[in-house]
Amino acid sequence: MASALGSGDKDRQFTNEIDEEVAKLLELKAQLGGDDGKHQFVLKTAKGTRDYNPKQMAIREKVFNTIIRSFKRHGAETIDTPVFELKETLTGKYGEDSKLIYDLKDQGGELLSLRYDLTVPFARYLAMNKITNIKRYHIAKVYRRDNPAMTRGRYREFYQCDFDIAGQYDAMIPDAECLKIVHEILSELDLGDFRIKVNDRRILDGMFAVCGVPDDKFRTICSTVDKLDKMAWEDVKKEMVNEKGLSEEAADQIGEYVSMQGGMDLAERLLQDQKMSQSKQACAGLSDIKLLFSYLQLFQVTDKVVFDLSLARGLDYYTGIIYEAVLTQAGVAPVSTETPQGAPAEESVSVGSVAGGGRYDGLVGMFDPKGRKVPCVGVSIGIERVFSIMEQKAEASAEKVRTTEVQVMVASAQKNLLEERLKLVTELWKAGIKAEVMYKKNPKLLSQLQHCEESGIPLVAILGEQELKDGVVKLRVVSTREEFDICRAGLLDEIRRRTSEA
User: Fold this and answer.
1) Angle between helices 280-298 and 264-271 (to 10 degrees)
2) Residue 40: count of CB within 10 angstroms of its CB
3) Hey, which residues does 328 pair with through a beta bridge?
4) For residue range 35-63, what is the model confidence (pLDDT) as tens digits?
5) CA 133: distance to chain centroid?
6) Which residue has better confidence, 324 or 99?
7) What gap in Å lies between CA 425 and CA 387, rounded to an integer?
8) SS3 category, 77
């Protein structure tokens, strides 16, 4: 009994000692001028994300508008889908990249994941709504649980700009239009030289088969080949042999093919190739590449397109044509040339992929209860990389980026004219003119004019006692500092004329 009490006393003594130590620490914290019990927030954005300031958003909007204009020019309509999907919707569609899917906690009995791209949700949407043909674009954020290299335009949260054509059509006509759209957007954004690499999943699979890759290793070897734009051939070969268990002989044969680049001529040559011609799959892909190039000539884009056997694109859902656009710092290498075995020709000058896509004829059927297939082909513009380049260009040029679209500032040169300013700005807003006033009863004219110069507002409508008596408004052109008296009735037309000229 005594020993039991002893152990209880010890416990109490130990607890008291802890309480005393805690009290001392709290007292010390108070002496150090604590934070009044308030939680100290860490002011940072989550890893792999960023904020965008008004200047960055102005550049971004310009890029989005260019892309949307092109999508609409080609007859696309737009849709939207939820930011998260049922986990099973996304599972098994991305090959080795599936590990990058963001899974959410179980909420109300549903296992959900953040969308990884806009293609799988699109396929789910088509199957769910029994849609068999549509041309759509979708611009929205996607999420990847990546270890991001933000300096290279890689994020965990980023926008994708997708254009897809779903429906049963004759071979390669929609595919060629997707490449035309990539060419159009990259040319219009004026990012510098680019090239669009083209290949076909059937050519890759045929190549793997004739080189002796076992069927069950096709997808995993494809994922390794996909790394050729980031790794040297020697490292890719090592991964194939040491990690993926491929024979050295098979790897060397693959190496010979993936070093080839060209145009329609290369497709014709491979159709005669002793090994490749043994694969029905490869021959079907090569015939389509020939057909594709004939349409691309009509679309006048062959100057930037190259048939590149090293292009693999690791996503599991591609079934036919695949393509990727890369920016090159030094001019684009001639399309018809081939490189010695090893890395692709532009490796030394490539600055990363800015668009990619391909044909995925089986994806909708995976969701359809009856397995009905809807052939699809699409392209995704890598907006973050594009945006990084546009931002650098804006920094390098002395040109000022406007962050608002205000056309006219309503100002006054004297006191007690707030009501008159508010009346006039209301008139302008009603007429659809972008205008603003300073939120002060009696602002100094100089500070109003300075605001216009800093913000790039082109016009100032100045009110004064005399102007009000005469029924006029003094219109000032900010850039030249010229001033004109305009009658109140003609003010709207004058503002419209001057801002449309600008």
Assistant:
1) 160
2) 7
3) 350
4) 555 678 889 998 889 899 999 999 999 99
5) 25
6) 324
7) 35
8) strand
Q: Name the nearest CA neighbour of 195 among 138, 263, 256.
A: 263
Q: How far apart are CA 358 and CA 377, in angstroms?
A: 6
Q: CB within 8 A of 98, min separation 6: which ones?
A: 90, 91, 92
Distance CA 243, CA 224 (A): 10
Q: pLDDT value at position 42?
A: 86
For 263-277, the pLDDT digits (tens) are: 999 999 999 988 899
Would you state the pLDDT for residue 105? 87
Q: How far is CA 18 from CA 12, 14, 135, 287, 298, in A?
A: 10, 6, 69, 80, 83
Strand blocks (E) in 277-346: 305-308, 321-328
Helix/strand/coil for 110: strand
Bridge-based pairing of strands 472-477 and 483-487 is: antiparallel
Q: What are 478-501's pLDDT values in tens digits?
A: 999 999 999 999 999 999 999 987
C-alpha to C-alpha distance for 379 and 138, rounded to whole angstroms:
11
Q: What is the pLDDT of residue 146?
A: 79
Sequence letter at residue 368: D
Distance (Å, rounded) from C-alpha 379 to C-alpha 382?
10
Classify 334 as helix, strand or coil. coil
As a whole number of angstroms, the distance between CA 450 and CA 234 comes to 61
Alpha carbon 221 to chain centroid distance?
27
- Reference 83, options 144, 142, 125, 162; nearest CA is 142
Q: CA-CA distance, 370 to 385, in Å (whole number)?
A: 40
Separation between Cα atoms, residue 263 and residue 351, nearest integer Å: 22
Q: Give pTM, 2 decimals.
A: 0.81
The pLDDT tens digits for 292-302 are: 999 999 999 99
Rounded-to-integer distance, Cα 423 and Cα 429, Å: 10
Residues 221, 96 contacting (CB under 8 angstroms): no
DSSP state for residue 76 in the 8-state scheme: -
d(CA 190, CA 66): 11
Amino acid identity at 300: Q
Q: Whole-number mean pLDDT of the chain?
A: 87
